[in-house]
Design a protein that fits this description.
Elements: E1 15-16, H1 18-28, E2 35-39, E3 52-53, E4 63-64, E5 68-71, E6 82-84, E7 86-90, E8 105-108, E9 120-123, E10 127-129, E11 135-137, E12 147-148, E13 159-161, H2 169-177, E14 182-186, E15 190-196, E16 200-201, E17 212-213, H3 216-226, E18 230-237, H4 241-251, E19 257-261, H5 272-279, E20 281-287, E21 289-290, E22 295-300, E23 303-308, H6 312-330, E24 341-345, E25 349-350, E26 356-365, E27 371-375, H7 384-388, E28 392-396, E29 402-403, E30 408-413, H8 414-417
Parallel strand pairs: 1-20, 7-8, 15-18, 15-19, 16-17, 19-23, 21-26, 24-27
Antiparallel strand pairs: 2-14, 3-13, 4-12, 5-8, 5-9, 6-11, 10-11, 20-22, 22-23, 24-30, 25-29, 26-27, 26-28, 28-30
The chain binds adenosine monophosphate and magnesium ion.
Length: 418
């Protein structure tokens, strides 16, 4: 298994812009996962290991896009209806077995092969069957209408699915349409997941005094699983550097990524930093981002390590910007930035220039059918309800100094992020 160099995350800068962080990850990381073949039913949510090249044209032969009548366009009157005899019938899966004759219409159904010589199909809704069995075809049909060419969707020999794609249901359908029943995907990235903090208690039992239930481990487990990772839940680590160091060192050999939350700021109760320094090597990336404090990156025994802050909202924002691309790149995936959608702000907000900020927001119908983003009324990075009761994040870039109602802003729905 590929190992990381000690300094793969070294970065000397002060505040790192988010785009630069992604560029650094792209430049430094190589896939560490092997390749395996899976059946198509197992392929969704996995990372495609090799380009899927079309072995056949899609569609494989010219066919009708509608139920109707196939004709030679040359037989249609340019400016008037045309009446033609119906000489044959071709259902999907059938064949005419001869070329279309001049002056003939052929009854045809969606997906049936175009008769040789026919180039155009009149939809049955635009055709009238006359009492004598002939059809009246309405004027104005363009040559080639309602006919699909062989290979018009995907030509044989071209890349139908690019390596690195996190496979979606429609991607799996494409592989099937090209005749594949199994495809090469990356082995699942093995992620060891820990929470850290003496105040944390696992859900499922009565809450002891002065404890809070551990939620980050569950948010992160779910988010990593959606990225196709095989996550090992290794529970809660105490706020003791030696305990953290030994747990990380023990997990490292059988995992590709070690992920913790909590304990990475610079307070005296933040022990993850010392633990990683003791067990491997550590770098801090101070992302120019709010919410989201420094993220610790490093490696332990050649296995990548990422330490996220503890506050649940900071966990989500740093997951999106660091862990998501990190996990995808280590797993051989393409770290595609999330889609951003322009919406109108329905709130006022001030920010400092120089860092990127994320405002939790709900989408609401605005004036004139526009979509508006309404911010969650409170800002605390510990407010899990702010994530549960909103639809996504409004992204305010480094240059912005604020938002006024009516401004166009970029909205990132959670479905793009988690
Ligand atoms: P820390 O980064 O360890 O200083 O933690 C910051 C805040 O996040 C504290 O209020 C912690 O109690 C809280 N926190 C840390 N880890 C978790 C977790 N796994 N689940 C819920 N809250 C957490
Ligand atoms: Mg802590």
């Amino acid at each position: 298994m590929a190992q990381l160099s000690d300094d793969c995350f070294a970065f000397g800068g002060a505040l790192m812009p988010v785009d630069e962080a992604l560029a650094e990850l792209r430049a430094r990381l190589r896939p560490v996962t092997g390749i395996e073949r899976v059946t198509l039913h197992e392929a969704a949510g996995r990372i495609l290991a090799e380009d899927v090249i079309a072995a056949v044209d899609l569609p494989p032969f010219a066919n009708s896009a509608v139920d109707g009548y196939a004709v030679r366009h040359a037989d249609l009157a340019p400016d008037a209806d045309t009446i033609l005899p119906v000489g044959a019938r071709v259902p999907a899966g059938g064949a005419l077995g001869r070329p279309i004759r001049p002056g003939e219409a052929v009854r045809i159904f969606t997906g049936a092969p175009m008769p040789e010589g026919a180039d155009t199909v009149m939809m049955q809704e635009d055709a009238e069957v006359l009492p004598d069995g002939r059809v009246r075809l309405r004027a104005g049909l363009k040559r080639g209408a309602n006919a699909r060419d062989a290979g018009e969707d995907v030509p044989k020999g071209t890349v139908a699915l690019p390596a690195g794609r996190l496979l979606r249901p429609q991607d799996v359908g494409m592989a099937a349409a090209l005749g594949c029943d199994a495809i090469a995907v990356r082995a699942r990235l093995r992620v060891a997941l820990f929470s850290t903090g003496d105040e944390l208690a696992p859900p499922g039992a009565a809450l002891p005094p002065l404890k809070v239930y551990d939620s980050n481990r569950f948010t992160l487990h779910a988010a990593l699983t959606r990225l196709g990772c095989a996550v090992t839940d290794l529970g809660i680590l105490p706020d003791r550097a030696e305990a953290v160091a030994s747990a990380l060192a023990e997990a490292a050999p059988a995992h590709d990524l070690l992920l913790t939350s909590g304990g990475v700021s610079t307070g005296e109760e933040d022990h993850v930093k010392a633990a990683v320094e003791a067990a491997g090597s550590l770098f801090f990336w101070r992302l120019a981002i709010k919410p989201g404090r420094p993220v610790a990156l490093g490696q332990v025994g050649g296995t990548a390590f990422a330490g996220l802050p503890g506050n649940p909202v900071a966990v989500v924002v740093t997951f999106v910007h660091v862990v998501r691309p990190l996990a995808l790149l280590l797993a051989g995936g393409t770290a595609v930035p999330p889609l951003r959608f322009p919406v109108r702000a329905a709130f006022r907000y001030r920010k400092k220039a120089g860092r990127r900020e994320y405002v939790r927001a709900s989408l609401v119908p605005g004036e004139g059918g526009a979509v508006e983003a309404r911010n969650f009324p409170r800002e605390g990075a510990g407010l899990l309800s702010s994530l549960v009761r909103t639809d996504g994040l409004v992204e305010l870039d480094e240059a912005a100094t604020g938002v006024a109602p009516g401004d166009q802003v970029a909205f990132l729905p959670y479905s793009e992020l988690l």
